[in-house]
Design brief:
This protein has 6 helices and 6 strands, in the order H-H-H-E-E-H-E-H-E-H-E-E. By secondary structure, the chain is an alpha+beta fold. Strands 1-2-3-4-6-5 form a 6-stranded mixed beta sheet, sandwiched between helices. Helix 2 crosses helix 3. It is globular and about 50 Å long. It starts with a helix and ends in a 12-residue tail after the last strand.
């Protein structure tokens, strides 16, 4: 799961995990420990995976955002997270797709689309007003996938990179309105 999270985050998770590693602990061990947590956004409890022949090939990590943004002291927040939090605050009450990633050998085979379908269902079950996600402007393939599934760009914020190296320069907030999951038959 840590590999897919890092892939979706364009290396930012690994960068952050390397800063959190203690002694000779590897950044991957930090990421794996976070995935094993019982709570928090990046927890196995918020994860759905797709498998092929018993191996994980794609993952979705998501959860419902509160209907009102939680108060945040932006001065206390690490600068890298400020633009992400500002964007997330704009989509309170949605079901948030924190991670959607597929290993390269399995892209284009419907795993991402299937996981987005599950996200739609979870949004409806939790009575959210749509889905939301944040993607790097350096990931046009992911943006096209999201647009094909009804997401629209809502806002952007410049990235704060610290020493993290990425080709992106903007975070792109995308939102999809909630689609009704049941349809009534018309009477004639």
């Amino acid at each position: 799961m840590a590999e897919l999270v890092n892939m979706a985050g364009d290396g930012m998770p690994f960068y952050l995990w390397s800063k959190s590693a203690q002694g000779d602990e590897s950044p991957w061990a930090v990421g794996e420990a976070r995935a094993r947590r019982e709570s928090g956004g990046f927890s196995y409890r918020n994860t759905v995976v797709r498998e092929h022949n018993g191996a994980v090939v794609a993952a979705l990590i998501g959860y419902p955002l509160p209907f009102e943004p939680e108060p945040v002291d932006y001065e206390e927040l690490p600068p890298m997270f400020v633009p992400l939090q500002r964007l997330e605050d704009r989509v309170s009450g949605t079901w948030y797709v924190n991670v959607l990633a597929t290993y390269p050998d399995f892209r284009g085979r419907g795993a991402g689309a299937a996981l987005l379908g599950i996200a739609d269902r979870l949004a409806a079950e939790t009575k959210r007003k749509g889905l939301s996600l944040i993607v790097s402007d350096a990931n046009p393939g992911a943006q096209r996938l999201y647009e094909r599934h009804g997401f629209e760009e809502l806002a952007t914020e410049p990235m704060v990179k610290d020493a993290w190296e990425t080709e992106g320069s903007q975070w792109v907030l995308m939102k999809k309105p909630q689609v009704p999951t049941t349809f009534r038959r018309s009477r004639r």
